[in-house]
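Table S2 (text version). Query chain:
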Amino acid sequence: MTTATTTAPQGADHRRKGPGLFRQTLRLGRTEFTLFVRYKTASMYLLMPVILLLPVLNQQSVPILGEYTTTELSLIGTIGAIALFLGLGHPCNVFTARREALVLKRLRVSGVPATAIFGGVFLVVLLFTVLIAALIVAGSVALGGPLPADPVMLLLSVALGCLAMTMLGLLLTRFAGNAESAQILSMVPMMALLFLSGGFIPLDVMPDAVRQVALLLPVAPTVEMAQAAYFGYDVFGGLEGAEPVGFLGLWAGALPGIGVMLVWIVALALLVRRYFVWDPRRP
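Corresponding structure-token output:
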């Protein structure tokens, strides 16, 4: 005796699964890239590091780190500060505008996770920061400079700076009412962090207390890492008396700065998760 069994299709089992978090982030990253290229204000954030390079290249150059000069040191220090313009300025501006246009609310209602939304803009900030950094390195080599002593540390400094500044830019959107006010609002911490970055004004010429405070902020450690990674000198204790070190010496000296950046990244990510505003109608 044969018993025929039929299995009723269950909608939940046959429902097509949506893309995972990684694929969603990549898709939003591609969208962010297209919008970034079309967005006229974005060109301002791309040009600001280049404009700041002009006085660096025209300054009086004197040896300060072995055979390397102040101009070369400032040029490479700019790499650590690029994310300050792109990561802080761009997300603060565009996410404020999207919130006012209800784009962010629609994304959240459609089920797109916040990690994918924020990850998309981070990928664009990282991409363009790496591109500008590559141009700076190419320009330095063309002028007779060396290749980076530790490319991995150099890339890590860029990635940490991009992540921290993107989180800070997203956090600032809470205090901006519209895109215009977001641009002004982002300039305040941008200029303060730029002054204390050590990329254009060496921290060694500042009072020791100011230098110690600057090294606890989320830009100066990335500038130090970029300079150390490029020239192979242990500049983490200051430029005066810095000596060339090997691979392990560089990473040992970079650990405190990496720790500072990770603390900032975690703290800012938690603040963004708690206080980011998705709806223009605030409670």
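Notes on Table S2: Residues 1-14 have pLDDT under 50 and may be disordered. Residues 42 and 224 are 27 Å apart (CA to CA).
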